[in-house]
Specification:
The chain is built from five helices and three strands. By secondary structure, it is α+β, with helices and mostly antiparallel strands.
Length: 79
């Protein structure tokens, strides 16, 4: 878990994306980009990293936190 916390907190946009999915529950890449005020290709890169770490899952074009992602998001928020 410590390694994942470091992975997320080491990048503000990763942290923002997890927090956003934590509060909104599910969003598509376009809405993530709009809410985060960053370009969609940047969001897609971060989404790819978080999918690889199994912190988020994709259903159709929507992204949401996994149980691990929810747990990590709560830990990061409490730091």
């Amino acid at each position: 878990m410590e390694e994942l916390i470091g992975f997320v907190t080491g990048n503000k946009n990763r942290q923002k994306l997890l927090a956003l999915l934590g509060s909104k529950h599910q969003l598509d890449a376009g809405k993530l980009a709009k809410n985060m005020h960053i370009a969609r290709p940047s969001v897609e890169k971060i989404v790819g990293e978080l999918l690889e770490k199994e912190l988020i899952v994709q259903e159709s074009d929507m992204y949401m936190l996994t149980e691990l992602g929810e747990s990590l998001e709560r830990k990061v928020q409490s730091i």
